[in-house]
Amino acid sequence: MAVMWKLSLSYLSRSKIQNSFIALLILLSTLLLSTAVMILANTGNQFREMHTRTHGSHQILTFEKGLNDPKAVHNWWASQEGVDVSDLLTYRTLSGISFHGTDIPNVYLYMINTPSTPGAVDKLIFSSGTSQTVPKQGSVWIPTSMANAYDISAGDAIGFKTGTTTIELNVSGIVVDVPYGAPFTNTARVWMNPSDYLDDVQSLAGNDNYMMGIHFDDYSAHSSYWEQYSLEAGGPFLETKMEFESISSFYLIINQMIGFIMVFLGVVMLAIALITIGFTISDAILANYKTIGILKSLGLTSAKTIGTYVIQYSLLSCIAILPGLGLSVWVSKFIINISVSSLRVANRNIPVEGVGSAMPVGVFLFAMILLFVVMYAKKARSIQPVQAIRYGMSEMDNTRMARRMNSPLTSLFGFARLPVAAVIGVRHVIKNIKSSVLMLLLTTIASSVLVLGFVLLTSITGIVQTAAKWGYDNANIAAVVVNKSTFPKEDFKQWLQEDARIKNAGWQGNITGVVSPDPSRDAKGQISSIALSVLDGSYQDLGFETLEGNNPQQKNEMAIGVGVAESLNKEPGDFLELYIEGEKRTFLITGIYQAIANMSISGRITMEAMNTIRPNYGDFDAIFINLNDPLEAEHVAKEMNNHFKKSASVVTQKTLLDSVYSEAADILIYPMSLLGLLFILVTFIIIFSTCRISIRKESRTYGIYKSLGLTSRRIRLSIAMGVSALSAMGALLGILIGVYVLPILLEMILADYGIVQLPLILNGGGIVIFACIGIIAAALGSWFSSRVIQETSPRMLVIE
């Protein structure tokens, strides 16, 4: 045992830098894998905990169209057992705020007349400010999502745009408002003092609207409640209904994306770490072949020889795994807190669950490392003392090496055909085939991760270029109707007709369609209603895209989202029966599209279809406008917004999308940067270690090169050139994997949110630059590892 300990400590002390890098590699593997496990363990936990704590809504009903009596609907639901309802909240809608002298147009607000009694559903949790029954006069409560998006703090003053004037109110509280507090939203509920609401908002032209939240003791039974409502009310609910899936989706999507990517890459990192350890042991045995042969001739058994490596890597693993587990807790807390920051209370970190799950990860890693150590160290059993002393390797390996170096492929890189520097670099790669394969694999993975991160962030920040593929329109300008009762529809139409800069326009309304029950299908998991878009205009002209088929053109046609198609097992050419405002209609499905809004539980119909149900339908929510010259969009939008600011908000599509998805990019950039840095660091570490091992094995050859007149710098550059050429091949493969393979994994996650084909923006120059980062890391790793050639004299290299 004493001999084993001495040999293990000798190996550790003799290769301090290499062993330090291996320990760091184990630490990074532990960090990545345990962080991924904790993120997945916490995905949804924070939302579910806050939803339970606030007794949050499963559905939100809004009454804006006058099709149902709000009080009657509220009374019916309040009388049901197993159901809790919020107060019937009175509100008006406003658009746009001013903050610190800056106008922010793309913010849509429900100005709530705060009830004097705390509600049983959607209780407000104060993140900052003093908890009170209602806001003080002259002040409001805003949700955490709005505060985070625009860096608003309690005590700040906000100007709320009413069209003609601005209402100046102080922020006395920032609250967690679960239904309207998700990240990546430009819609918020602003809770007002009743006196302020009466004086400042209710006095404006227009009518009050109402909303209510419904909480089910058993959410899976909500369909049966709605069926009972339709029977007793004499017809279906015709106003707008927001489902629980829509409420929860944006709370969960980022964590699931990050967690899934990190699990995949964590497994890849673990595989690389184990392969590297196995490779290091194999080369260590080969480098110490003569020494092991001599020790075995002196009586050291094979079991004790294996035991020296087990002790060595057990010590390295203990030193590395424990700090890795500790760091993973900190990193996972950081990522989770930024991804669900709208659920944080009083700037306190959200409690991270599943910390205990990191310990089994550490145990698993330790066991896997020891397993690989034993598996690779078994090669020491076959060492024959005589062969070891004579060849420095087994006779078979010596013969195989000679054949490889004298193969026809190798002869192509002879000294007579290529420059000496190129020959040295290429032979270094060919002779050490195992390490070369490892370097190729590593640079491929590193480049693919960097390319994926760049493409993903570019695709989100540039979403305006692919808006139609996310389910949005592709028009230049969007006018959102804020106050329908005062909106001058005819004046707006006249403007559209008379302005020569406007190419075409489409008026869009939103209604709810109730799916006709089908006894032949299993009701479990089936959707009961879908969000319908009604367009007075051409879907094609406004840039709406489909994955299959076409958008509707006739009154009996419709396109459906992929969520509807999957749930109802429909495809183009099938028929779908819907109840719209109590009228049953049968539609021919002409196309299927994807949309992140409403998780693709939606459909598109024409104005002609709606007119068969309600003649002269005019309940529009937005107008999409195309220009003859898209470059004029900013100027035209500003003109129209100034003219119709009393009842509408007119902005460019870029403004509309950037205000929502820039936050997603800000959140994603941290974990993706972390993954990129980790893989760059691992690339450097592993290539440093493998090159160092290879150089030590070839020290006699490099000593001869130096004695023949080659300088250390020239030899080192030759090795770095060979590794760089190999890394360039890996970078090319990495580009293909990062662009075409890894996005498929993301699509597996996004499919649950309505996106089955991830819209990517491919910036060729940026992709190449990020892929080349792995080449730089590989070149630097090989360059620094070859310092031993510079620091050692030719005589010592030959002796060594």
What's the SSE blueprint?
Blueprint: H1 2-14, H2 16-42, H3 45-53, E1 59-63, H4 70-78, E2 83-85, E3 89-99, E4 102-113, E5 125-129, E6 139-143, H5 144-150, E7 157-161, E8 166-176, E9 187-192, H6 194-201, E10 209-216, H7 222-233, E11 240-242, H8 244-287, H9 289-297, H10 302-339, H11 358-377, H12 385-391, H13 395-405, H14 408-411, H15 420-431, H16 433-461, E12 477-481, H17 489-498, E13 502-515, E14 529-536, E15 548-549, E16 557-561, H18 562-568, E17 575-580, E18 583-593, E19 602-606, H19 607-611, E20 622-627, H20 633-644, E21 648-652, H21 653-697, H22 699-707, H23 712-750, H24 764-785, H25 787-791, H26 794-799
Parallel strand pairs: 4-9, 6-8, 14-19, 16-18
Antiparallel strand pairs: 1-10, 1-11, 2-10, 3-4, 3-7, 3-10, 5-8, 6-9, 7-8, 12-20, 12-21, 13-14, 13-17, 13-20, 15-18, 16-19, 17-18
Explain what you see:
- This protein has 800 residues and is an alpha+beta fold.
- The chain is built from 26 helices and 21 strands.
- The strands form two sheets. The protein has a six-stranded mixed barrel. Strands 13-14-19-16-18-17 form a six-stranded mixed barrel.
- A hairpin with a 2-residue loop joins strand 17 (575-580) and strand 18.
- The protein is elongated, with a radius of gyration of 33 Å.
- The two termini are 29 Å apart.
- The model is unreliable at 385-395 (pLDDT under 50).
Using only C-alpha atoms, the radius of gyration works out to 33 Å
> What distance lies between the first and last C-alpha atoms, to the nearest angstrom?
29 Å
Q: Helical content, roughly? A: 40-55%
Put simply, the count of helices is 26
Summing up helix and strand content along with how strands pair, one would put the structural category as alpha+beta
Shape: elongated
Runs in which pLDDT lies below 50 for 5 or more consecutive residues are 385-395
The quaternary organization reads as: single chain
Calculate the mean pLDDT score and round it: 81
**Largest sheet: spatial strand order:** 3-4-9-6-8-7
Beta-strand percentage? 15-25%
Major sheet summary line: 6 strands, mixed, barrel
